Amino acid sequence: MAKTDFYELLGVEKNASDEDIKKAYRKLAVKYHPDKNPGDKSAEEKFREATEAYEILKDSKKRAQYDQFGHAAFESGAGGGYGGGFGGGFGGFDISDALRAFMNDFQGDSVFSDLFGFGGGGRGRRGGAGGGASRGNDLQIRLPLTLEEIETGVKKTLKVHRKDRCTTCGGSGSKSGKRNTCTKCGGSGRVRHVAQSFFGQVIQESVCPVCHGEGAVVADMCPTCSGSGLSAVETTVTVDIPAGVSEGNYLNVPEKGDAGRNSGPAGDLIVLIQEKEHPVFKRHGIDLSCDIDLTFSESALGTSKTVQTLDTKVALKIPSGTQSEKIFRLKGKGLPSLHGRDHGDLMVKVHVRTPEKVSKQAKELLEKLAEIGM
Q: In CA terms, which of 104, 180, 199, 356 is 20 to 30 Å from 38?
């Protein structure tokens, strides 16, 4: 199936400025972000496509390749690829890549408060410290929450396994502190790859795999960290989760990821929210639903049932003649919205239960009821 032109997909002209491209993508990303369209696969795909287009067109070199060769410049086997940790071709760019790219590009932007009301702030995510220093890796941790915790908000202390500066070598990676120029890249920290595609020669530049972009390698490796300058540690991080979060929301904790090489800044910790399955309630946005059983006599004559909500018990009046599958709405007994402006309801569906075993006395009564048409 033919792919949509990236410029057309973002709704910009081919001579659009970088700022115009960024604005167009930002608008689409906010509109189709999975957290604003939970369960909508069509919106998820549009978000992925828009992010895919933006990741190419925001980069001057990749944009030039795209303008010359089109999608073929980045297809698998053409020597292109996205770089930056994504899959090699279009097929490898999935929704998780799109979410990660979006967060990298707009961390600290007001777009985060537009989407979630939390998780924004923090510093830019691309800078280094210069002098061969590089930023540490971001880490992800999944945080399962109950609906009760989601209703009220919760403070959680997390155990995080991360890499910190080696205490033996002070993070240099070298036992003596000496470093030699990398022979692979000649000290530039970058290497070039040349590949042949159907359209001709394609040149791609990437980080040197030997020195990891630093341009130099240690002369004598530290025995503790094997020359990486980093060693594994376990730390604790406390996070405040606001009420109303949902599956797929995330919270960014600045500088709680891996430490950077050569005194570079630490990466961030990304806390991904997961919802635990509840034994009673099902979630529908900010609304909840549950089921209760009624007997024949309760549904016919009416009754009052005690219904357990997330935080209390309430009396639900069942009028006479209530039919099975009828839904009663308990206002305000659902979940709060993330921004706190709204509160959902609890929908209670009743089921008229047919007894599997009937006593002799009950059978006689039911037979009498049948005689009079009930």
A: 104
